[in-house]
Amino acid sequence: MNAAVRAEVLNDAAQYYEEQGYVVLPGLLPARLVDKLMSLYQRDILPTKTKFYRQNTNIYDRNRFTSHGHVIQSFLDVHNYKRFPEFSQAALDLYFSPELLGGLQQVTGHAKHNLMQSMLFDANAATPPHQDWWYLDSVPNGNLLGAWIAMEDIHEDAGRFYVLAGTHRVALHEKNMAHSDWLVRMREYMDAHPELIHVPALKKGDVLFWNSRTIHGSLPTKDLKHSRKSLTAHFLPSQMTFGNLFTSKPWVQYEQHGEFQYFANQPEHSLKAEMVSKLKVAVYDSPRLLRLARKFQKRSVADV
């Protein structure tokens, strides 16, 4: 794709993102970045007995495999695996690549972005429908966005990523609502609006950007022999404060990758980190305890 055509595609992408709450940029990432990270994943992450924090189960756990050799659990904050510096460096190089940052800038109109969270999926973790702003967002709300990156051609039976188009204008939460009740409401909204469900067929190097308010998740896996190797990331315009629907977090401590900044809330495994994470999960579905925790929280889990 020549420069003039790519510029036209990106300009159209910004308008589509504004209207639909998501957009796909085909072939945005070069194969060399994808291949390098996947090679290090195969070499360093797959065979290790190290415990990683799992986004889909909210616990520290060793790799568990399907009958076809794919890791069942997702990996959180892969850009901050200091015990695996080559892998972490390759992840940061991909997330802060000129190609990905250029797509971000064109879609959002903001000149610079901070990386706030990352995930890696080998097998499909069957993520339920949700909106990110409950967990992480910009302050003011609605300016953080996610990036879903295909690290291979995603088979239709592997449990593809989906979005509900236009739902960045939908608010389904209410004051003092339990997280579990909110998730039920998400599922009911999705079941009532099947016409909004978009399931793009993404190929290696394709990137789907979605807004923090857009409902999204992943379809069930139909055939376990297929992996669904993919990355996600959440980016915040650099001039904005980090937070979520309920609070701001101006105290977050950033680390540097060259001229760029990144944050990682979840520390690598230790007995202390495991205890703190269990406490965090225990209070998460209690609106009263969460309000109390948010009132006094002055640092991230990683700093405790």
What's this, in brief?
The protein is of the alpha+beta class. Helix content is 30%, strand content 20%.
Name its key features.
Jelly Rolls, globular, 30% helix, alpha+beta, 304 residues
What can you tell me about this protein's structure?
The chain is α+β, with helices and mostly antiparallel strands and 304 residues long. The chain has one domain (3-303): q2cbj1_9rhob like domain (Jelly Rolls, Sandwich), CATH 2.60.120.620. It is built from seven helices and 15 strands. The protein has helices at residues 3-20, 31-45, 85-95, 98-108, 179-192, 271-283, 287-296, and strands at residues 22-25, 52-54, 59-61, 75-76, 113-121, 137-139, 145-150, 161-164, 197-198, 207-211, 216-218, 230-237, 241-243, 255-257, 260-262. A six-stranded antiparallel β-sheet has the order 1-10-7-12-5-4. The longest helix has 18 residues, at 3-20. The relative contact order is 0.19. The model is unreliable at 1-8 (pLDDT under 50).
Question: Strands, helices and their partners?
Answer:
Blueprint (H helix, E strand, L loop, with lengths): L2 H18 L1 E4 L5 H15 L6 E3 L4 E3 L13 E2 L8 H11 L2 H11 L4 E9 L15 E3 L5 E6 L10 E4 L14 H14 L4 E2 L8 E5 L4 E3 L11 E8 L3 E3 L11 E3 L2 E3 L8 H13 L3 H10 L8
Antiparallel strand pairs: 1-10, 2-3, 4-5, 5-12, 6-13, 7-10, 7-12, 8-9, 8-11, 14-15
Helix pairs in contact: 1-4, 2-3
